[in-house]
């Protein structure tokens, strides 16, 4: 977690535990016991979308030591996609007994409600769109989330036909993109060596150039790669034309940790040593270089499940710097200063799962923050006044956002 010195800096050190595709597994004693600022789960919380599996996923997330846990759905979590769930039930012949459906899957929206109720444990289920947060450590985080994956058939949740594509509307200033599926060309190879990622997603990420893009879905594509972008992007960016391979670095993938028949004895020994070390600490780690914002993206495929329940891949812990999001309220001992309540309210005000960020709240918050930063450098009366006005305005906007969210929740 952040030290007092970090808190005074313009950017804030932030650690993120990333995992995906846990498929209802309890993962007892197999998750990192590190403390992080944020935890991200990139979908496939369950194998068959049963209520029991969602409960198990919530237990798993509660066992991770991070104050904010961001979760998206995956194709396996089809009961979170009510239209798909209804169509799946309709297609079953002969029709299933409604009581039986209810027993395993719950009523329509029940699984979603279970996750919404988990907000009291810091768990936020993100719908497709942009979400802004001010973190416990004072950093501002903008996330774009999408559970949608391409599929030629089947009736899983949140899918589109690859021929029709999908619009991934990633906004400027997005720090982290969280999708269930990989982009075409990066950590997306299947066992048959096919590339299963989505080209539309690759193009959207290349244009937005977030610091991190994390995902899962293609379990065997597990790994991390720091990708350098070409200075001038193609009109329709693709992995073939727009990645500068000479400046890109593969952090790790399954083949760099597991020995193969082609390895020399020395290579095999060094892989085994590396794997043993990572397994003992229960994670692999990567850092996003602070000076590479806008020129590189760290891609992370965090699929935990491998080919079976016993073949597990390690979660990731990623370290990055994020811009300060508010005045200094988190002390080195982790306690909250006097503005903590304001900041928490603002964080709530600018996060509305169904509509993306509230632009008015953001503007008011930023106006307030500009002056709030002056706390550390000594502040003149005019700035003090602007600071009070900014905070008052942010609180007013919070009221409006809360009403809006009630509307979102009711939808
Ligand atoms: Zn999966």
Automatic annotation (TrEMBL):
InterPro entries from the UniProt entry: Calcineurin-like_PHP, Metallo-depent_PP-like, UPF0046_metallophosphoest
SUPFAM superfamilies linked to this entry: Metallo-dependent phosphatases
Molecular function as annotated in GO: hydrolase activity
Domain Calcineurin-like phosphoesterase: 16-220
Domain of life: Eukaryota
Any matching Pfam family: Metallophos
Gene3D superfamilies noted in UniProt: 3.60.21.10
UniProt-listed CDD domains: MPP_239FB
Protein name: Metallophosphoesterase
Protein source organism: Cordyceps javanica
């Amino acid at each position: 977690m952040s030290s007092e010195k970090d808190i005074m800096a313009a950017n804030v050190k932030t650690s993120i535990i990333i995992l995906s595709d846990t498929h209802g597994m309890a993962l007892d004693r197999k998750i990192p016991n590190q403390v992080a600022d944020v935890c991200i789960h990139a979908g496939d919380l369950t194998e068959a979308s049963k209520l029991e599996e969602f409960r198990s996923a919530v237990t798993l997330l509660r066992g991770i030591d991070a104050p904010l846990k961001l979760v998206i759905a995956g194709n396996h979590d089809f009961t979170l996609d009510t239209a798909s769930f209804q169509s799946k039930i309709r297609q079953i012949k002969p029709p299933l007994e409604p009581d039986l459906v209810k027993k395993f899957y719950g009523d329509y929206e029940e699984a979603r409600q279970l996750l919404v109720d988990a907000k009291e444990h810091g768990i936020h289920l993100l719908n497709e769109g942009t979400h802004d947060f001010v973190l416990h450590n004072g950093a501002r985080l903008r996330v774009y989330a999408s559970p949608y994956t391409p599929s030629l058939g089947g009736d899983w949740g949140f899918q589109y036909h690859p021929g029709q594509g999908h619009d991934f509307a990633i906004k400027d200033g997005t720090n982290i993109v969280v999708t269930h599926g990989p982009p075409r060309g990066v950590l997306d190879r299947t066992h048959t060596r096919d590339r299963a990622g989505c080209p539309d997603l690759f193009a959207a990420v290349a244009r937005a150039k977030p610091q991190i893009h994390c995902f899962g879905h293609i379990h065997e594509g597990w790994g991390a790669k720091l990708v350098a972008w070409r200075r001038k992007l193609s009109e329709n960016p693709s992995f073939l034309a727009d990645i500068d391979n000479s400046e890109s670095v593969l952090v790790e993938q399954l083949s760099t940790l597991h020995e193969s028949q082609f390895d020399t004895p020395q290579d095999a020994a060094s892989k085994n040593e590396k794997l043993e070390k990572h397994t003992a600490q229960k994670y692999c780690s990567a850092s996003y270089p602070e000076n590479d914002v806008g020129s590189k993206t760290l891609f992370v495929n965090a699929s935990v499940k491998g080919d079976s329940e016993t073949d597990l891949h390690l979660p990731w812990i990623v370290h990055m710097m994020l811009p300060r999001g508010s005045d200094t309220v988190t002390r080195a001992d982790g306690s909250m200063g006097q503005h903590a309540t304001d900041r928490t309210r603002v964080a709530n005000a600018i996060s509305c799962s169904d509509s993306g960020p509230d632009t008015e709240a953001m503007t008011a918050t930023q106006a307030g923050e500009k002056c709030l930063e002056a706390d550390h450098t000594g502040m003149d009366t005019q700035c003090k006044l602007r600071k009070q006005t900014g905070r008052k305005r942010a609180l007013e906007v919070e009221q409006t956002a809360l009403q809006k969210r009630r509307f979102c929740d009711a939808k």
